[in-house]
Specification:
With 923 residues, the protein is mainly α. Among the domains are: 1-137, no CATH class; 154-266, no CATH class; 816-923, Serine Threonine Protein Phosphatase 5, Tetratricopeptide repeat. The chain has 53 helices and two strands. It has a two-stranded antiparallel ribbon with strand order 1-2. The longest helix is centred in the N-terminal third of the chain and has 14 residues, at 91-104. The N and C termini lie far apart (92 Å). It comes from Adiantum capillus-veneris. Keywords: Repeat. Residues 48-62 have a biased composition (Low complexity). GO terms for molecular function: RNA binding.
Length: 923
C-alpha cells in the first residue's frame, strides 16, 4: 500500500448514468433502493407518486434491466444521504452512492466527501478511498479520515507515512489525528515513531487530553515499553475503568502478573469497579501454579461483582483452572454456567486433554453431541488431543469418523491435528493420507508432517517434504529448519546440513539462537566437529545451552579431552553451571586417565549444589564406579536423599560390568528390601554378566526372580535370557524360554539363531532359519548375518550361497561389510580361494582390509601362498597397524619353510612398532 502515497492512480470511475441491477438481484428489505425509501420517508422527504416509485424500485430483472435514480424521483435530503453513507457496508452499493453524489454535485461537499471516504474505509476499499483522497481538496478531516482508514485496515506503515506527510505539509493536527495514528504504533519496531508522535502531542498542547493519554498508554504497552506505559498511566488525572484495564492488560500480557494484580487491587481501592474486560485481562495471564491464590481472589471478586454466571468470564475461569491442573474447580465452574457455549465445552475438553485425562475429555466430547451441540474445529482438536494423551488409535479413528462428511473435514487445523494424532499413535501411513487429502496446507501442517517423520527416524522423506513445501510456495519458518536439521542428523548427512545452513544464513533466522544451537548439534552428530566448534566460537552470546551442546558433542564422539578443556574454559568465563553441563562433563571422566578432572568437577558440582540433584548424584556414582572406586561410589549412593530405579540400576550395573556378580546380587536384594521395584534394565545388566562369565547358577536364580516379578514376557528380558543360557551352553533352557515367549519377534528368533551358531550347531541353525522363513517373522540383516556365519563355520557351502541370494533378491536387503566378510569366509573355508578373490572384485570390496584378512586366513588353512601374498598386500596396505595380517602371512610362510620371507615380515612389524606381537609369529 505504500506505493499508493506516491501518486494518484490514473483511472476513471467505472459507473454509468444508471444503476445496473446484477443478475438475480431483487430489491428486498435492506436493498439500497428500499433502504433509501425507508430513510427518505423517516426524514420527511417528499415523494411524488410514492406507490409508482416504490413499484419501480422493487421491479425484478424480469420486468426491467435498469434501475435509475431519476426514474425513482427521490429528491433525498442530506440527512437521508448521510445516514446511507454512514451505514452502508456493501462495496457495489457504495459505488452507486458515490456515483449518485457525483451526479447531484454533493461530491464536492467537504462533509459528504469525508463521509464517502469513511464509507470506503469501512468496506476495506483502500484503492477507492485513497483515489478519492488524492483527487480532492485535502483538509484536516480528510487527512484524519485517510489515516484512520489505513489504520483500521492494518496498513500501519501507510498511516504513519501519511501522518508525517501531513505534518510536513503543515496541515493542522488535531487530537483525532493523533488518536488515529497512535493506533498504528502497535509493535516494538514502531516504538520510535510512537515516541516522535508523543513529542508532537506535547508540542501541540494535547498531553492533558485524557483520551490521548490512554492511547499513549496503549501504544507504549503494545510496543513493549512497559516503563513508559506506566509513567503515562500515572500521569492520567482521572483514569477510568478502560485506562485501568488497559494498564492491567499490558502488565499481564508481558508476564508481570504480580504487578497486574497490584494494579487490580489499587483500582478497587480507588473505588473503581472492574469490568468484565478487566477480569478477562487478569485471568488470561494466570498460568503459573504459584499464582493460584491470585486466581482464587479474582474468582471471588467476579462472584462479588455479580459476574459469576457470565459465560465469557466462566469460560476464562475454566481455562485458568485447567492450566493450573485444577480440574475439579474447572468442572465446578462449568457446571454453574447457565448458558454453555461451544467455547465453554471446548475449553473444558481441552483442560482434561492437556492434563492427561483423555478418557474424561472424550466423555465430554460425546456427551456434548448427545445434547445436540455441534462440534467446531476447536472441539475436534481437543478430542484428538485427548486421544493423544491416551495413545489410543481406536478413539482417534472414532473422532476422525465424526469429522468426515462435515465442513471441518478439510479444515487445516483439524487435519493437522489428525496428522499429529495418527503419527504419534503409530499409524504414519494414515497420517500421510490425511495430509495428502488436505485442500489447503499451511506452514504449521507442513511442519507437523516433517516433524513427525523426523521423530520416527526418517531422514530422506522430511527432506523431500521440505522441497515439495517450497514448490507449493509455502514460506518456511524457524520450526521447519529445526525439524529438517533433525532429519540431517538422522541421515548423518553433513552435506545436506551445509545446504540448509546456507539457507538459514540467507534468511531472517540467521542469528536465531535456537537454530545456531541446532546447527552445532547437527554438525557434531554428523561427525563434523570442526564446523560445530567454528559455529560455537563465532556465537557472540553463548548461554549455558551452547556450552552443553558443544561439550556433549565432544563426549558423544569420544573426544573427552576436548570436552574437559572446553569445560575449563567455560569455568574461566564464569558461565553458569547447570545440571545438563555437569552431566556431560561427568560423562567425559569415565576413563581412569581423567580421575583428577572428575574429582574437580565433583567439587564444582558441590559448590553449585548440583550434587544434591538426583541425576547428578547418580552420574557421580556411575563415574566413581567406572573407575572401580566402589567404596566412594557407595558413600555417594548412601548420601543420596532420594534413590530412584535409575540410581539402583546404575550401581547394580557397575558391579555387573566389573564382573562382581555376588555384589550385584546383594545390591539387588537390598533394593527389594527397600521396596524399590526392579525393572527390565536391572535384570538385563546382571544377566549379561552371567552370560560373559558362564555363571549359569546365578543366571537361573535371576530367572526365578524375573518370573516372580512378572517380567518373563518382556522381549528384551527374554532375549537376554536366551543369550545367557546359550553362552552357558544350556541349549534346552534357551529353547524353553523362546517357546514360552508370547511375542516371538525377529529379535527373539535372531537371538536363538545366534545361540545355535555360537554352540557350533550350524546345521541346526540353518534348519531353524528355514522354520523362521516358513512361520516366523520377516528376517532382517542380523538374521542373515547369523545364518551366513553358521553356514561358513559348518561348511554348508550351497546353503550359504542360497541364504545370500535370498537376502539380496528375495528380501531386498542390502548386504553390509560383515555379510560380505562371511561370504569370503564361506568360499575360503570351502577351498574356493579363487572364487573368493573374484567375489571381492565383483562386489567392489578391494578397499576393505577385513575381507582381504579373511581371505588370507583361508589361504593359511589351505596353504595357498600365491593368493595369500596378494591378500596380505591389500590387507597390510589398507590397515598397516593391524598385527593379525602380519601374523597370518608370517605363519603361512613358516608353514612352507620360507624363512627369509618370515624374517622380512618380522622386520616390517618392528618398523611399525608391533614388537609386542612377535611372539605370535612362527620362526
Amino acid at each position: 500500500m505504500s506505493s499508493l502515497l506516491l501518486s494518484p492512480p490514473a483511472r476513471l470511475w467505472p459507473y454509468s448514468d444508471t444503476l445496473i441491477l446484477a443478475d438475480g438481484f431483487e430489491p428486498q428489505k435492506g436493498s439500497l433502493a428500499n433502504r433509501s425509501l425507508e430513510i427518505s420517508q423517516k426524514n420527511g422527504s417528499q415523494i411524488s407518486n410514492p406507490s409508482s416509485a416504490a413499484r419501480r424500485a422493487s421491479t425484478t430483472p424480469a420486468q426491467t434491466d435498469h434501475f435509475n435514480w431519476n426514474d425513482v424521483n427521490l429528491p433525498l435530503n442530506k440527512q437521508s444521504l448521510a445516514t446511507l453513507l454512514k451505514e452502508e457496508t456493501h462495496l457495489y452499493k457504495c459505488h452507486y452512492l458515490h456515483h449518485y453524489l457525483t451526479k447531484i454535485g454533493l461530491d464536492r461537499n467537504v462533509f459528504f466527501k469525508n463521509m464517502t471516504l469513511n464509507m470506503y474505509g469501512r468496506c476495506g476499499a483502500l484503492d477507492d478511498a485513497h483515489h478519492l483522497f488524492l483527487c480532492s481538496r485535502k483538509d484536516t478531516p480528510a487527512w484524519n479520515a485517510m489515516i484512520g482508514i489505513f489504520t483500521q485496515n492494518g496498513h500501519h506503515k501507510d498511516a504513519l507515512q501519511l501522518f508525517f506527510e501531513m505534518q510536513h505539509q503543515s496541515v493542522e493536527l488535531t487530537s483525532i489525528t493523533f488518536m488515529n495514528v497512535l493506533t498504528s504504533c502497535d509493535h516494538p519496531s514502531t516504538l520510535m515513531d510512537g515516541v516522535v508522535i508523543h513529542a508532537f502531542i506535547v508540542e501541540y498542547g494535547f498531553e492533558g487530553n485524557e483520551f490521548l493519554g490512554s492511547a499513549l498508554v496503549t501504544m507504549y504497552g503494545k510496543c513493549q515499553s512497559i516503563e513508559e506505559a506506566g509513567i503515562m498511566f500515572h500521569k492520567l488525572y482521572h483514569p477510568n475503568v478502560i485506562s485501568w484495564t488497559t494498564m492491567i492488560s499490558i502488565l499481564a500480557n508481558n508476564g508481570l502478573v504480580e504487578d497486574a494484580f497490584k494494579h487490580f487491587e489499587v483500582m478497587q481501592d480507588a473505588g473503581m469497579s472492574p469490568s468484565r474486560v478487566t477480569f478477562l485481562a487478569v485471568l488470561a495471564a494466570l498460568h503459573d501454579p504459584l499464582m493460584l491464590d491470585v486466581g482464587n481472589t479474582i474468582h471471588a471478586c467476579i462472584t462479588k461483582c455479580g459476574f459469576d454466571c457470565d459465560c465469557f468470564l466462566g469460560t476464562s475461569l475454566i481455562k485458568m483452572y485447567g492450566e493450573l491442573a485444577l480440574l475439579e474447580e474447572a468442572q465446578h465452574v462449568f457446571d454453574s454456567l447457565r448458558d454453555r457455549t461451544i467455547v465453554s465445552w471446548n475449553v473444558l475438553i481441552d483442560a482434561y486433554a492437556q492434563n492427561e485425562e483423555g478418557e474424561r475429555a472424550l466423555q465430554l466430547f460425546w456427551h456434548m453431541q448427545g445434547g445436540g451441540l455441534q462440534p467446531d474445529a476447536a472441539t475436534y482438536v481437543g478430542a484428538l488431543n485427548a486421544c493423544l494423551s491416551l495413545e489410543s488409535l481406536t478413539d482417534g479413528r472414532a473422532v476422525h469418523a465424526c469429522v468426515k462428511g462435515t465442513e471441518f473435514e478439510g479444515h487445516v487445523v483439524v487435519a493437522t491435528a489428525l496428522v499429529t494424532m495418527y503419527s504419534r499413535c503409530g499409524d504414519l501411513h494414515e497420517a500421510y493420507t490425511v495430509f495428502e487429502g488436505m485442500c489447503h496446507r499451511n506452514v504449521v501442517s507442513w511442519n507437523t508432517l516433517i516433524g513427525e517423520y523426523t521423530e520416527h527416524g526418517f531422514g530422506k522423506e522430511p527432506l523431500q517434504f521440505f522441497y515439495q513445501m517450497l514448490e507449493e510456495g509455502v514460506m518456511v519458518s524457524k520450526v521447519t529448519y529445526l525439524n529438517i536439521l533433525g532429519a540431517c542428523e538422522t541421515l548423518a548427512a553433513p552435506v545436506e546440513c551445509m545446504r540448509f545452513h546456507a539457507r538459514i544464513w540467507g534468511s531472517e533466522w540467521k542469528t536465531n539462537a535456537a537454530l545456531e544451537a541446532a546447527l552445532i548439534n547437527t554438525y557434531g552428530k554428523c561427525g563434523h566437529l570442526e564446523e560445530a566448534r567454528f559455529l560455537f566460537d563465532r556465537t557472540e552470546q553463548r548461554n549455558v545451552i551452547f556450552w552443553n551442546m558443544m561439550i556433549s558433542v565432544y563426549v558423544q564422539h569420544g573426544h573427552d579431552e576436548e570436552a574437559l578443556a572446553l569445560f575449563t574454559i567455560m569455568q574461566q568465563e564464569e558461565a553458569t553451571l547447570d545440571q545438563a553441563v555437569a552431566l556431560s562433563a561427568l560423562k567425559a571422566c569415565s576413563s581412569l586417565s581423567f580421575q583428577d578432572e572428575g574429582r574437580s568437577i565433583h567439587t564444582t558440582a558441590v559448590r553449585f549444589g548440583l550434587d544434591l540433584q538426583l541425576d547428578v548424584g547418580t552420574a557421580l556414582v556411575g563415574m566413581y564406579g567406572k573407575w572401580g572406586a566402589f567404596e566412594e561410589a557407595n558413600v555417594l549412593f548412601g548420601g543420596l536423599c532420594v534413590r530412584n530405579i535409575v540410581t539402583w540400576n546404575t550401581l547394580i550395573g557397575l558391579y555387573a560390568q566389573h564382573g562382581c556378580i555376588c555384589e550385584a546380587m546383594q545390591c539387588l536384594q537390598k533394593m527389594k528390601e527397600e521396596h524399590a521395584q526392579p525393572d527390565r534394565f536391572t535384570f538385563i545388566s546382571i544377566l549379561s554378566t552371567c552370560a560373559s562369565s558362564s555363571s549359569v547358577e546365578e543366571g537361573k536364580a535371576l530367572h526365578a526372580l524375573i518370573l516372580s516379578e512378572g517380567l518373563e514376557q518382556c522381549i528384551s528380558v527374554g532375549t537376554t535370557l536366551i543369550s545367557m543360557y546359550g553362552k552357558c551352553g544350556d541349549l534346552e533352557a534357551a529353547h524353553s524360554v523362546f517357546d514360552k515367549m508370547h511375542e516371538q519377534g525377529v529379535i527373539a528368533w535372531n537371538c536363538m539363531l545366534a545361540t545355535y551358531a555360537q554352540l557350533g550347531l550350524g546345521r541346526k541353525a540353518y534348519e531353524f532359519y528355514l522354520q523362521m522363513l516358513d512361520k516366523g517373522p520377516m528376517p532382517d540383516a542380523v538374521t542373515f548375518l547369523s545364518v551366513l556365519s553358521a553356514c561358513s563355520h559348518a561348511g554348508l557351502f550351497e546353503e550359504g550361497l542360497s541364504c545370500f541370494s535370498t537376502m539380496r533378491d528375495g528380501y531386498k536387503i542390502e548386504p553390509k561389510l560383515e555379510h560380505f566378510g562371511c561370504m569370503v569366509d564361506l568360499y575360503g573355508r570351502s577351498g574356493e580361494l579363487k572364487e573368493a578373490e573374484r567375489f571381492i572384485y565383483k562386489m567392489q570390496l578391494e578397499g576393505h582390509a577385513l575381507v582381504w584378512r579373511t581371505l588370507l586366513a583361508s589361504c593359511k588353512v589351505h596353504n595357498n601362498v600365491e593368493i595369500g601374498r596378494l591378500a596380505a598386500k591389500f590387507a597390510i596396505d589398507l590397515d598397516p597397524d593391524n598385527p593379525s595380517s602380519y601374523i597370518l602371512l608370517s605363519n603361512l610362510f613358516a608353514k612352507n619353510q620360507m624363512l627369509k620371507d618370515v624374517a622380512v615380515v618380522r622386520e616390517r612389524m618392528i618398523e611399525r612398532g608391533l614388537s609386542d606381537c612377535l611372539d605370535a609369529v612362527k620362526s
